[in-house]
């Protein structure tokens, strides 16, 4: 393969010496250049790497007082990487080196020769290398350069034009002046914001402890039941607040350098003379399961946005998982590929953003902004017409397929009649029943192997054969430039290739558990390993499209940077379209995506949220990271290297000790097992700097991908069969993890638990955008699914309490909070009823509103407000978004979270399985009112408890106010405490109440019915608990509880 050795380039000194081979050299901060071999590079400590640049050339310079001649180094050879056609024996350690040479130069501009090359070893001492400490401060470098006219740190080497310069378009000086640059940068939150934030958290923790102690020591003896409920709830709230706030102690920001990525991987260099892309491959997974709830047009637009992404075409492969086996999705994808042949070059020619055609043509901004080509308007008009025709074809596919099936089935019926007539001597018996199977037919006149419209054996949902269809073949390795076309688009000089695209529908049978989305993702992992074996995997939901065409490159910056080999995945934030302007139900969820996730990035990394995530394939296979650490001590403050002898489940592959248990772990496919070592090698960062550990040599990935053949396709079909995972570790330790409706969180947790870390990539332009349910019922069911998965996690072995020592302490707290937060619903519902109980009984949670209670309450409230303001400051969210999040936390906690805990307990105790239906994705066809779904009221049992909280608090306010008005001696203090508390609860419930009103305040009848029932029930309960007294004495309206 290319990149097996570094090309040798002759050099010449000013003294007319013979040609010399190029060597690797390092330039220090003072300008001094020291020759290095590749062995020296790999052995150099990392702290030196952060302050020095790496240069791939040898310089000729006169000796100076701090640069004396040394010894001539030996140059080791460079071993080639494993080939792209899978061989497990390519996993060996790669050594990199350069050939040694002597160099001559003159001091002071003379011609006296000196032997300048020497081997340098670096020793760490007080975090400084020997080389840095050798720089003397007494010597004036600038004065010496001026007096001697020496070429200090510049060099006199040159490339011979006939061997390199003319082919690449780069001169010798370009290579000499190119410093080593990091691909990413970590930006810490300013101390002026973070320090007060941390101090206030500590202050509030202390005040909460004193407040709870005071509450326990000062019970309300007139209403012990009320005091007892309140103190239990407050203790739990303090505990849950700690779980939520502690992981936010170290939020950070990150930025990627796309120019440095292009310069490092796609610019001509000695190891890559033609400047081919040396980036690793990416396999993109798009998942869909129901063509009715997930419209094919939405999925097709997502596919088009991926195919048009700015990433080397030959390094990108797209796979769509159709878990429903629908012919409608299949033919829609075929139409999408045809349209992509026009849409993708159009996007490249005019630099279109976003590259989802539906989103692009729906923009309200000026489409000609920043467009300079004179034919843009004509091209846009023409492609818009093509897209409209494409949409019409997609919309008409159901009718086309049904008409085709009807025609073929009619023909089958006639054939069956003919057969019966031949059997009965040309007559059709009157009592003879024509029996034939109504099949679903493909365009070529064959039976569709997936799900039929009329279910039949082997052709039903959950019972059909595996399907694999290459919609777009592996592209040519070199760019294919288009040309002019009469009356159509002019693609002269534009690369018209599109990435490889495959349709996959795994085999399903009734006797096998298909494990929902996790099983579909694992089938794609295996099939893609056979077909393309990209070392990185990006998964997207069918309604989450690529909004930023450079997003793939930004994610790759983190994977390919120094230390990137320890990153298991890059999580991008979820951004949504079609949300109502007020974001009534907190669909944007910016508090989580811009607050919590950014804070987790400062620990061991963000959690995996199910979409918009770029995985390292090797990490998905269940292997541990290189150079893993363990965290011991009470708070995990002691960091030590992990055991050198890993456990059985984490044993890595080596060349000398191959893993003989691969079939047991991954299945019986030899081709798949051989691909593992290749994926691991190709996913390594570029070993172009001595501080990069576990790197690969430059130019190792510039060879073309082998074409697909019949045996390869047959193997890919075999690995998506339903029986392939039998007696393997798929879903247990390998791939997406089974056993939870929130398989995404569990999968990310398992990787962190092995010692991997993840990165949160927030791009300036949103990387991906999707849709979210704006209907209240759909939103609550979505929250119910998430909360149910969290309860399952809490009662499983994936509970963070059982995590290994490779999980950081605060990261463990964050995962513990993921499993515990639904249980807050019990205490939240109780606390929401407390103000009503207080108003009904005439008592409050404290004996009296004294100075101590009010002081604690004031301090706790002020510190919370200040903490929230500072959190808004460092996370960049708006105050309105923070308040919407608080409101929906109460709404969801009193409805979906409560039901989720009950369902989770039923599953754990009684073994009752939980099933959920897909959330419908909108095709955005109603352009007159895109928020029409917001006003639709769909009654669900989840409404009962929040509605009860609202009605009970309203009734309590009326009763409490009436008591004080008609009382001989009013006690307004007790009314104020309960009324303020009740108004606070109702303020959080306002979006829920507004959602029940429907369009223009038209409340559905069922809401009135339930409100009446709840009011009557509360009144009857109150009469039973506190019947009217016959002897009213001094107070005719006295209430006793």
Automatic annotation (TrEMBL):
Active site: 323, 744
Keyword terms, alphabetized: Cell wall biogenesis/degradation, Glycosyltransferase, Golgi apparatus, Membrane, Transferase, Transmembrane, Transmembrane helix
Main localization category: Golgi
Region (Disordered): 1-113
Subcellular localization: Golgi apparatus membrane
Superkingdom of source: Eukaryota
Amino acids binding Mn(2+): 517, 541
Biological process according to GO: cell wall organization; cellulose biosynthetic process; pollen germination
SUPFAM superfamilies assigned to the protein according to its UniProt record, in alphabetical order: Nucleotide-diphospho-sugar transferases
GO cellular component: Golgi membrane
Binding site for UDP-alpha-D-glucose: 287, 293-294, 323, 516
Bilayer topology: Multi-pass membrane protein
A GO molecular-function annotation: cellulose synthase (UDP-forming) activity
TM region positions: 191-213, 225-246, 814-838, 844-867, 939-962, 974-993, 1005-1025
Pfam families in the cross-refs: Cellulose_synt
Function: Thought to be a Golgi-localized beta-glycan synthase that polymerize the backbones of noncellulosic polysaccharides (hemicelluloses) of plant cell wall.
Family: Belongs to the glycosyltransferase 2 family. Plant cellulose synthase-like D subfamily.
Protein name: Cellulose synthase-like protein D1
Species the sequence originates in: Sesamum indicum
Organism taxonomic ancestry: Eukaryota, Viridiplantae, Streptophyta, Embryophyta, Tracheophyta
């Amino acid at each position: 393969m290319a990149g097996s050795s570094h090309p040798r380039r002759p050099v010449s000194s000013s003294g007319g010496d013979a040609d010399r081979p190029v060597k690797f050299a390092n330039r220090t901060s003072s300008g001094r250049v020291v020759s290095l071999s590749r062995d020296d590079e790999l052995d150099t400590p990392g702290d030196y790497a952060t302050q020095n640049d790496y240069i791939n050339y040898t310089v000729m310079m006169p000796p100076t007082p701090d640069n004396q001649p040394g010894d001539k180094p030996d140059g080791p050879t460079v071993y080639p990487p494993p080939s792209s056609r899978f061989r497990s024996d390519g996993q060996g350690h790669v050594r990199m080196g350069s050939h040694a040479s002597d160099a001559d130069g003159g001091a002071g501009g003379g011609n006296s020769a000196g032997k300048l090359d020497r081997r340098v070893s670096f020793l760490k001492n007080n975090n400084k290398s020997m080389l840095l400490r050798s720089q003397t401060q007494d010597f004036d470098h600038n004065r010496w350069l001026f007096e001697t006219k020496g070429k200090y740190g510049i060099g006199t080497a040159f490339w011979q034009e006939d061997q390199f310069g003319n082919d690449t378009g780069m001169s010798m000086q370009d290579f000499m002046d190119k410093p080593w640059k990091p691909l990413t940068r970590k930006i810490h939150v300013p101390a002026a914001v973070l320090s007060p934030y941390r101090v206030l958290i500590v202050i509030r923790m202390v005040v909460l402890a004193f407040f709870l102690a005071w509450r326990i020591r000062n019970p309300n003896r007139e209403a012990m039941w009320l005091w007892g409920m309140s103190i239990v709830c407050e203790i739990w709230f303090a505990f849950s607040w700690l779980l939520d706030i502690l992981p936010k102690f170290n939020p950070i920001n990150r930025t990627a350098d796309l120019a440095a990525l292009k310069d490092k991987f796609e610019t001509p260099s000695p190891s890559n003379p033609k400047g081919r892309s040396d980036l690793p491959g990416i396999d993109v997974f798009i998942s869909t399961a129901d063509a009715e709830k997930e419209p094919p047009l939405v999925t097709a637009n997502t596919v088009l946005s991926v195919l048009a992404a700015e990433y080397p075409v030959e390094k990108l492969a797209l796979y769509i998982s159709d878990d429903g086996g629908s012919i409608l999705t299949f033919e829609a994808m075929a139409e999408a590929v045809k349209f992509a042949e026009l849409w993708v070059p159009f996007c490249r020619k005019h630099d279109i953003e976003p590259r989802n055609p539906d989103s692009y043509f729906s923009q309200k901004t000026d489409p000609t902004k920043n467009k300079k080509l004179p034919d843009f308007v004509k091209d846009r008009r023409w492609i818009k017409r093509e897209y409209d025709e494409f949409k019409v074809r997609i919309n008409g596919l159901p009718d086309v397929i049904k008409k085709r099936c009807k025609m073929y089935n009619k023909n089958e019926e006639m054939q069956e009649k003919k057969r019966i007539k031949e059997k009965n001597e040309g007559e059709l018996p009157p009592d003879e029943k024509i029996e034939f199977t109504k099949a679903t037919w493909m365009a070529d006149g064959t039976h569709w192997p997936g799900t039929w419209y009329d279910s039949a054996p082997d052709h039903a949902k959950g019972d059909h054969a595996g399907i694999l269809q290459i919609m777009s073949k592996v592209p040519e390795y070199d760019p294919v430039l288009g040309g002019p076309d009469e009356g159509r688009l002019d693609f002269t000089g534009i690369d018209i290739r599109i990435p490889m695209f495959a349709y996959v529908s795994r085999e399903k049978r009734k006797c096998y558990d298909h494990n929902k989305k996790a099983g579909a993702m694992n089938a794609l992992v295996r099939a893609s390993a056979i077909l393309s074996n990209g070392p990185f995997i990006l998964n997207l939901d069918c309604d989450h499209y690529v909004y930023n065409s450079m997003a793939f490159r930004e994610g790759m910056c983190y994977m390919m940077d120094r230390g990137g080999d320890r990153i298991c995945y890059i999580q991008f934030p979820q951004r949504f379209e079609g949300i109502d302007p007020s974001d009534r139900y907190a669909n944007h969820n910016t508090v989580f995506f811009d607050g919590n996730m950014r804070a987790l990035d400062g620990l061991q990394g963000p959690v995996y949220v199910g979409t918009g995530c770029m995985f390292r394939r090797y990490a998905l296979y269940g292997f541990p990271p290189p150079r893993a650490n363990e965290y011991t001590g009470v708070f995990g403050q002691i960091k030590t290297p992990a055991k050198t002898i890993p456990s059985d489940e984490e044993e890595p592959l080596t060349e000398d000790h191959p893993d003989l248990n691969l079939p047991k772990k991954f299945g019986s496919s030899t081709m798949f097992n051989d691909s593992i070592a290749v994926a691991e090698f190709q996913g390594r960062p570029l070993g172009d700097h001595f501080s990069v550990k576990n790197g690969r040599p430059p130019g190792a990935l510039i060879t073309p991908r082998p074409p697909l053949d019949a045996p390869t396709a047959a193997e890919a079909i075999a690995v998506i069969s339903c029986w392939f995972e039998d007696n393997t570790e798929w879903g247990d330790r390998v791939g997406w993890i089974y056993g939870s409706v929130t398989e995404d969180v569990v999968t990310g947790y398992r990787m962190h638990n092995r010692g991997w870390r993840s990165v949160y990539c927030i791009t300036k332009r949103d990387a991906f955008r999707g849709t979210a349910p704006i209907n209240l019922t759909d939103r609550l069911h979505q929250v119910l699914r998430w909360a149910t998965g969290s309860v399952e996690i809490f009662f499983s072995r994936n509970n963070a309490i059982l995590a290994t020592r490779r999980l950081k302490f605060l990261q463990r707290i964050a995962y513990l909070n993921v499993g515990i937060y639904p249980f807050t619903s019990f205490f939240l519902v109780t606390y929401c009823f407390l103000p009503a109980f207080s108003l009904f009984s005439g008592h409050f949670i404290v004996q009296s509103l004294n100075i101590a209670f009010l002081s604690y309450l004031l301090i706790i409230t002020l510190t919370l407000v200040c903490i929230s303001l500072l959190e808004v400051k460092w996370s960049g969210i708006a105050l309105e978004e923070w308040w919407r999040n608080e409101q929906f936390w109460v709404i969801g906690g009193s409805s979906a979270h409560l039901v989720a805990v009950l369902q989770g307990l039923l599953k754990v105790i009684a073994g009752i399985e939980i099933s959920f239906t897909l959330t419908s994705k909108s095709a955005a066809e109603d352009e007159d009112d895109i928020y029409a779904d917001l006003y639709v009221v769909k009654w669900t049992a989840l409404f009962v408890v929040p509605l009860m909280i609202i009605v009970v608090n309203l009734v309590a306010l009326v009763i409490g106010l009436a008591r004080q008005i008609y009382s001989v001696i009013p006690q307004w203090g007790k009314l104020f405490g309960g009324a303020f508390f009740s108004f606070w609860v109702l303020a959080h419930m306002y979006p829920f109440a507004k959602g029940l009103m429907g369009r223009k305040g038209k409340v559905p009848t069922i809401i009135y019915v339930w409100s009446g029932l709840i009011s009557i029930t509360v009144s009857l309960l109150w009469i039973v608990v506190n019947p009217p007294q016959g002897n009213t004495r001094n107070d005719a309206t006295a209430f006793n509880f």
